[in-house]
Amino acid sequence: MYVLRIFGNAMIPVHQFPPLQLGHLIKRYKRFLADIALATGQIITAHCPNTGPMTGVCAPGSPVAVSHQPSPKRKLAYTWELIRVGGVWVGINTSLPNKIVLQGLKQGVFAELRDFPVIKTEVPYGQEGSRVDFCLTDPHTARSMLVEVKNTTWCKPELGQNVAIFPDTETTRGQKHLRELMGSLDQRTDAAIVYFIHRGDCPLFRSGDEADPKYGELLRQAIERGVKVLPYRFQVDETGVYYLGTATLVSAGWG
What we know:
By secondary structure, the chain is mainly beta. The protein has three helices and 17 strands. Helix 2 runs parallel beside helix 3 (213-225).
C-alpha cells in the first residue's frame, strides 16, 4: 500500500499490487469461489472477495488477474483481484476500497475530506446499530465528518459516456446507512458517502434505481438534506490503483 501526494490533473497512485498472475475466468460459484485458468495452463480455485452479484463484471471467459499469497492460515492461496471488461480492468476486491480511502485520508489526497486530521474507523453511530467506516474530526473546531464507502463496479453506456451505478442489487444495508447518515447531521456533524468507482472508464455516476428504487429515493433525500456524495474515480491495472478525481453526478432532478 502506498499513496503519493500529487494533486492537479495527474493520476495519483494509491495502491500497489503484489505481482499478479493473468488468466481467464471459468466460473464463479458459491459467492466466494472462482475457478480460473491461468496463462500457464494451470486451473486454480481462487477466493472471490466480492459477495455481491457482480453485475456486468463476472462473465466466464473474461481475462482476470489474481494474487498469490500462500499461507497456512489461508484455505485458498489465490485471490481474484481484477477482471477485464470491454478493454478496461475492473477491481473486484471489496476489501481494498476502505484500505485505500484510509491511506488517502491520511495523506490528504481527497480535497473534500482534508480538513479533519483525526481519523477513526468502524465507529458506532446512528439509531439502527450501525458502524460508520470513518469518523473524521477537527479538534480545533469540534466538527466531525461521518464517511461511508461503497465499492462500485456496475457500468452502463448512457448520455454518450459510461456511467458508474450503485447499487447493482437491492441493499437494505445500504438503505440503512443512508438513513443513519441523514439522522446524524447536526450543527457539528457532517456526513458523506464515497462511491469508490473501481474502474477508470466512468466519468459519470448515478444511483441504481432500476436495481433498488428505495435506495435511489433515499439517496436523493440525503442529498437534499446535505449529505455529501463523492463518486471518486479510480483507474486499475495489473500494477496498482490510481485516483483520477471525482465523477459527475447525473440524474433527473439532482442538478
